[in-house]
Amino acid sequence: MTSERLARLKAVLERRQPDLTVLLENVHKPHNFSAILRTCDAVGVLEAHAVTPTGSLKRHHAASGGSGKWVGVRAHRSLASALAALRREGLRILAAHLRPDARDFREEDYTRPTAVLLGQERLGVSAEAEAACDGFVRIPMLGFVGSLNVSVAAALILFEAQRQRGAAGLYDRPRLDPETARRQLFEWAYPELAAYCRDHGLAFPRLDEAGEMLDAVPGPR
Q: Could you tell me the residue ranges of all domains in the chain?
């Protein structure tokens, strides 16, 4: 672990936003899924959520540019379980959805704890999701096309969220609780060892100020 790499990891970690995320409802094309993760990383999303009945997630690494290493993804087998998890964290759910009462996405306040729900490529937001959301946003279209690609829509909305949060100073100080920050730093610094610890139910070793491990990990590495 070089001092430069450790400093870079800490600098990015200090800008992560625990109360801004996306919920992908059956977004099934790997290039869209991974492009959205790439945007999540760019705007400081800590963890994304995805509804996938099979429980499996595919990522198109050419699109993600490795962002899958930096943005966690929590998979949910049902929309109901995903919504319940987000509400337990105090997030409101805004769906990108074309309906008469949808607001221009630039008029929403993304400094509030927010999860942006994005529907499946062909079918969009489901009726179940529409009934459960707290609000709806739309991207104004002036041409013949009625909607944008889901990853493009996600990028526009998330970068508006970044703009607002930047103006409000939400990137100017660390916003993760110390334990979450400690675990995330270890995940990024030692991904293979972190996976080993998770698989074997072991606590992550503590790190010193230089990023070196203070505790031994039992078993093979």
A: 1-14+176-221, 17-167
The two structure tokens encoding residue 137: 């946003």
Q: 100: which 2 tokens?
A: 């008469």
The candidate with the shortest Cα–Cα distance to 130, out of 161, 106, 98, is 98
Give residue 131's Cα distance to chain centre.
23
Token pair in block for residue 103: 């607001």
pLDDT in tens, 185-201: 999 999 999 999 999 99
* Overall pTM > 0.70: yes
In whole angstroms, give the CA distance from residue 154 to residue 139. Answer: 10
Cα 149–chain centre separation: 18
Sign of dihedral through CA atoms 110, 115, 72, 88? positive
**Exposed/middle/buried for residue 175 (C-beta within 10 Å: 0-12, 13-18, 19+):** buried
Q: Of 2.60.120.200, 1.10.357.10, 3.40.50.1820, 3.40.1280.10, which CATH number belongs to 17-167? A: 3.40.1280.10
Q: Which H or E run contains 149?
A: none
Q: Strands (DSSP E) along 30-96, which ranges?
A: 47-51, 72-76, 92-96
